[in-house]
Amino acid sequence: MGNCVSQMLQCCGLKQEESSQHGESGDLAPLIDSSGDCPGNNTRITCEPYYPVFPKKSEEQSDLNKILQDMATNVIDVASLGSYSLEQHEYRERMSFYITKLKSPMSSKSLSKAQKQELLQDVPNPDKVLISICSVPDDDLTFVRDILNQVDSLLENLKLVNSDALIIPFQIQN
């Protein structure tokens, strides 16, 4: 068997190194001669070094740390935004600010009148233009105007009463 192997190696241009044990090549003996000479073929075949598919442990750790850092910057910590972070006078200031913000557009009747007049700016007196184009009986026109006036007065008298707190603090009992 040893003779057959040596003949195959010689045929391929490889030398068989003899070990001290029984004339066979050892497990640690190189299969290709280090000189790189191949009989019959002067080109040398080079192999790229093997790069493992999986990243090194330090690269994995740095990638994981980067992902965790990105997540930490994007997460909102709701527990840190608890009610204990604001003092009583800050609550009162914010409450008065929100109340004034809510009341400011509703208390101004001139603003609502101005918005009604700005509805059709490009057409002067749209009601008169529509009446001149199509004939609507006066009874129907007065009926519609009365209904609209009633709806307008109902909307002006409409008030929203909130009996519950808008912000309910949740406190965890230990």
UniProtKB/TrEMBL annotation:
Belongs to the LAMTOR1 family. One of its GO terms (biological process) is endosomal transport. One of its GO terms (molecular function) is guanyl-nucleotide exchange factor activity. It comes from Parthenolecanium corni. GO terms for cellular component: late endosome membrane; lysosomal membrane; membrane raft; Ragulator complex. It is a lipid-anchor. This is Ragulator complex protein LAMTOR1. Keywords: Endosome, Lipoprotein, Lysosome, Membrane, Myristate, Palmitate. It is found in: Late endosome membrane; Lysosome membrane. It holds the Pfam family LAMTOR. It comes from the Eukaryota.
